[in-house]
Amino acid sequence: MAVLVELKGVGKAYPRGTVEVAALRDVSLEIAAGESVAVMGPSGSGKSTLLGILGCLDRPTRGHYLLDGREVSSLDDAELSALRNRRIGFVFQSFHLIPQLTVEENVETPLLYGRVPEREWRSRVHACLEKVGLDHRSTHRPSELSGGEAQRAAIARALVTEPAVLLADEPTGNLDSATGEEVAEVLWGLQREGRTVVVVTHNESLAARAQRVVRLRDGRIA
Ligand SMILES: Nc1ncnc2c1ncn2[C@@H]1O[C@H](COP(=O)(O)OP(=O)(O)OP(=O)(O)O)[C@@H](O)[C@H]1O
Ligand SMILES: [Mg+2]
Fold first, then answer.
1. Does some domain include residue 16?
2. Residue 146's pLDDT is what?
3. In a domain, 19, yes or no
4. Among protein residues, the one whose CA lies closest to atom 26 of ligand 1
5. What pTM was computed for the model?
6. Structural domain of residue 158, as residue ranges?
């Protein structure tokens, strides 16, 4: 399998007062295209920091990050956000849906900033809603959805640009276990369709269904 993501000696330090906090230290990691990976570790071990770097939301302070063999660390902000829009889908614990917009409008938002021609938007949006089993809720607003439905809407939104990699930070953290199971099924199902999926989770049974588990401790791969 082709290497999609490659981290080489990545460090991330945050300034805190006059000292620096190392959130990641010397992390080297390869993820192949089409692979599913769970990221686990105690609170504060650097999981969200790692995902933020993989998702081009943040930059490493040391080392190299190659996505599709391309060095990401050297891109400027505009290049980074263009890359993020084209190649990355992000799912958050608290869904981050826009409350004033309907489900289909929420799913459409990433297309406003991308290169997909407008005549394709509608079919893309509905194909993604169907994939997560939510087409019947397309005209509802987020406040009218259950937690599981809201997270499935967020997954549809993350998929609408057909990203190379889907990143999810504790996607079932706000859900009860049965609903979390449904959302996990959707996420790991995407891997079976060939998508690359990286999920941060505290849930061992959810993680056990990934092809690989990466464990962090104090900012290092354990
Ligand atoms: N923006 C920031 N500014 C300063 N320090 C930060 C920042 N973000 C994270 N940190 C610090 O970096 C370390 C790693 O944080 P991170 O959020 O990556 O942990 P995590 O593994 O996701 O934890 P959790 O399971 O609680 O979500 C922590 O010590 C945290 O306090
Ligand atoms: Mg976190």
1. no
2. 96
3. no
4. 43
5. 0.95
6. 36-57+76-221
